[in-house]
Write a structure and sequence with these properties.
This protein is an alpha+beta fold. Helix content is 32%, strand content 29%. The chain has helices spanning 69-81, 103-118, 125-133, 139-144, 178-182, 196-200, 209-215, 217-227, 248-257, 274-282, and strands at 2-23, 29-49, 54-56, 86-92, 148-151, 156-159, 166-171, 233-234, 241-245, 263-270. Strands 1, 2, 3, 4, 5, 6, 7, 8, 9 and 10 form a ten-stranded mixed sheet that branches. The two termini are 24 Å apart. The structure holds 4-diphosphocytidyl-2-C-methyl-D-erythritol 2-phosphate (SUD) and adenosine-5'-diphosphate.
């Protein structure tokens, strides 16, 4: 029944800063943020099926298969393309969930691009990004695969070239729901827009940080700890915190000083997504 197979990365992202600039009539918040990828993430394995079924062969604790963004992305592409094919999909989950590093969105984007390749459905990147936004605000940046300045609700993307430092990412054992942070009445919703130049010159902050650290003592304490060694920042709506370093050795040195019980990893920042680098090799 299997006709072809493909294994692809689903990398993490960081929000290098995040300003909430307003709120639309539909409740969604307008943002300014800067996305960069990490060369670290989940891996998905796809096998084509001729019987049209979409089967996720890996279980993600707490997420029903039908709610899994991988299955939802596969169904969306199948419907949009009209292909009679299906797929068996395996997920090697590495990224902490609810960590603001975009694991679910990245899995969805890898599924859209991977199955588009495997099924030979021929949708363009623009068409795949349009499908992606229906699954989540962060999916389009993973579909497009380039570090980007983002506005709107995160879907108005301008590719940018940034320095590619090494990052130490720390994941407090404390998933944060994005919806919960955006519905907190204490959230700053009227930040002034800034420019890329102002960010590069040291501007920009994460407007969600005060709400997250007020709600989660564990994240506040981890931030205080990481700030002893570097300028600690939070990605997205948390819970992951990160610091930038000029090389891997410096990042590893700080990692070695953190309590062994605290989950953390060191990864390189990338302007081109590891997914797109891998797909280019397959082309
Ligand atoms: C704010 C970011 C920054 O990267 O946070 P993280 O999720 O990565 O932490 C993302 O854009 C999040 O994107 P994503 O995680 O896909 O969010 P979605 O599933 O689309 O939205 C979850 C819920 O958060 C709220 N929401 C989300 C995004 C936004 N710009 N305004 C909102 O108000 C809405 O209530 C929505 O129902
Ligand atoms: N493949 C997936 N990987 C991770 N989370 C998923 C997936 N599919 C659905 N989800 C749901 O999306 C939520 C947010 O996931 P995730 O992308 O890891 O967080 P964040 O958006 O904070 O980075 C999870 O708590 C889970 O309920």
């Amino acid at each position: 029944m299997n006709t072809a197979t493909l294994s692809l990365p689903a990398p993490a992202k960081l929000n290098l800063f995040l300003h909430v600039t307003g709120q639309r009539d539909d409740g969604y918040h307008t943002l300014q943020t800067l996305f960069q990828f990490l060369d670290y993430g989940d891996t998905l394995h796809f096998s084509s099926r001729s019987d049209g079924k979409i089967a996720l062969l890996s279980n993600l604790p707490g997420v029903d298969a039908e709610d899994n963004l991988i299955v939802r992305a596969a169904r969306l592409l199948k419907e949009a393309s009209g292909t009679p094919l299906g797929a068996d999909i395996k997920l090697d989950k590495v990224l902490p969930m609810g960590g603001g590093i975009g694991g679910g969105s990245s899995d969805a984007a890898t599924t859209l691009l991977g199955l588009n390749h495997l099924w030979q459905t021929g949708l363009s990147i623009d068409q795949l990004a349009e499908l992606g936004i229906r699954l989540g605000a962060d999916v389009p940046v993973f579909v497009r695969g380039h570090a980007a300045w983002a506005e709107g609700v995160g879907e108005q993307l301008t590719p940018v070239e940034l320095e590619e430092p090494w990052f130490l990412v720390v994941a407090p054992d404390c998933p944060v729901s994005t919806a919960e942070i955006f519905s907190d009445e204490r959230l700053t919703r009227n930040s002034s827009p800034i420019t890329l130049a102002a960010f590069v010159a040291g501007g920009g902050r994460n407007d969600c940080l005060p709400v997250v650290t007020t709600r989660y003592t564990e994240i506040r304490n981890t931030l205080i700890l990481l700030n002893k060694y570097c300028e600690a920042k939070m990605t997205g709506t948390g819970s992951c915190l990160f610091g930038a370093f000029p090389n891997e050795r410096e990042a590893d040195k700080v990692r070695a000083r953190l309590p062994a019980t605290l989950r953390s990893f060191v990864a390189r920042g990338c302007n081109v997504s590891p997914l797109h680098r891998e797909l280019q090799k397959q082309a």
